[in-house]
């Protein structure tokens, strides 16, 4: 069991590190190490008929490292704390509106398109960090698996396409880019844009945290209200 766990951990680290070095060398945003690692490891598990539960249990120690990694995102936030204090009212209003729009549009479009309440709930929570998204999904009778998948996709698409898209539409402010990516693509998007600058990291981390809190407080009210009028 120990040797199997060590093998899966080393395999995961080797695959991710290889793709990270490749992206660093070629400087291509679409060569996202997380995405490519997933696209490599899933076929590997299927090819050798390895249950996901076995792989997940073997790599639990890697998952636990996410906690201090997320805490580390607070350092650039602390560095820009004085500037953020001067803008906190505007930031709160922007993130509140952003969360409301993101949840409402996803829920309305999904419900009107396929008329499946549980899927609509799950997709509407795609921009919330995973622990809160799963908890809200259970509370609102959604599908945990769909929510988890949607959160991964939101993070990956935000990490891959978010910065180029923002630059294309002339959103060049590090503050605006950080807030947008953090609110829409949570931890994965934040980790990606943090490589650009500490200012990007600070505002993206801030958006990730505040958006999660706002979603936890208001998403049940938003979803229940919309469901009442649409069903």
UniProtKB/TrEMBL annotation:
**UniProt keyword Transmembrane helix, yes or no:** yes
Subcellular localization is given as: Membrane
Q: Does the keyword Endoplasmic reticulum apply?
A: no
Its transmembrane ranges are 30-48, 91-114, 146-166, 202-223
Q: Which Pfam families match?
A: LrgB
- GO CC annotation: membrane
Which key words tag this protein in UniProt?
Answer: Membrane, Transmembrane, Transmembrane helix
The way it spans or sits in the membrane comes to:
Multi-pass membrane protein
Q: InterPro entries from the entry?
A: CidB/LrgB
| Protein name as annotated | LrgB family protein
């Amino acid at each position: 069991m120990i040797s199997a766990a060590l093998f899966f951990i080393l395999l995961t680290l080797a695959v991710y590190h290889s793709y990270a070095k490749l992206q660093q060398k070629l400087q291509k945003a679409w060569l996202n190490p997380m995405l490519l690692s997933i696209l490599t490891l899933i076929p590997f598990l299927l090819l050798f008929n390895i249950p996901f539960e076995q792989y997940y249990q073997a790599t639990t120690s890697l998952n636990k490292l996410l906690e201090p990694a997320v805490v580390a995102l607070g350092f650039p936030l602390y560095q820009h704390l004085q500037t953020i204090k001067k803008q906190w009212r505007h930031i709160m209003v922007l993130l509140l509106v952003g969360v409301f729009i993101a949840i409402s549009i996803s829920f309305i479009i999904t419900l009107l398109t396929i008329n499946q309440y549980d899927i609509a709930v799950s997709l509407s929570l795609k921009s919330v960090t995973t622990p809160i998204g799963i908890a809200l999904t259970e509370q609102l009778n959604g599908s945990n698996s769909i929510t988890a998948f949607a959160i991964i996709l939101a993070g990956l698409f935000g990490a891959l396409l978010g910065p180029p898209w923002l630059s294309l539409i002339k959103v060049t402010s590090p503050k605006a880019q950080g807030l947008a990516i953090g609110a829409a693509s949570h931890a994965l998007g934040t980790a990606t844009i943090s490589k650009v600058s500490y200012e990007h990291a600070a505002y993206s981390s801030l958006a990730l945290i505040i958006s999660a809190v706002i979603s936890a407080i208001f998403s049940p009210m938003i979803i229940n209200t919309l469901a009442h009028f649409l069903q």
